[in-house]
Description:
By secondary structure, this protein is α+β, with helices and mostly antiparallel strands. It has a domain at 47-147: Sandwich (Immunoglobulin-like), CATH 2.60.40. Helix content is 15%, strand content 40%. It contains one helix and nine strands, in the order H-E-E-E-E-E-E-E-E-E. It has a four-stranded antiparallel beta sheet, with no helix packed on it. Strands 3-2-7 form a three-stranded antiparallel beta sheet, with no helix packed on it. A two-stranded antiparallel ribbon has the order 1-4. A hairpin with a 4-residue loop joins strand 5 and strand 6.
Amino acid sequence: MSGRINFQLQLFLGLVLALSLGWLYQFPQPATDPLITPTPSPAPVFQNLSGGWLLQVRFFQAKLPEVVALTPLELLRLSPKNPQGKYFIQILDVNSQELFIEKFDVYFLRTGSSEILNSVEQSLLIPALDGAVKVIIHSPQGEISHAFP
């Protein structure tokens, strides 16, 4: 009978120990190495601006692009800059100084098929900058400029 009590006591103590350790592991562990610093939070992916423009452009494979519409926006959220692309837009001031540049690519392939299109319309978000007078759209076929209203 004493063997049975010892087994029950061992089982009980084992459960108490397991629950105690589980409870202790809930608390954060202090860093023991003073050289370890917490990882900084990542930089924001988007940049929020108080104003901007929605520039709609029709791109062609064989001729210059054309501006379809330039619509003002109250709020604008810009994505990170693309460091490469065959196409790009520039915003210039009165002295033809570059205020903004963004590179991008245009694809003439219809989504979900292998059909190649002659033209594609694309919407671009650009910031409203003080002193900006025109936007220039560069493509492999050449460049066009469009004045801000």
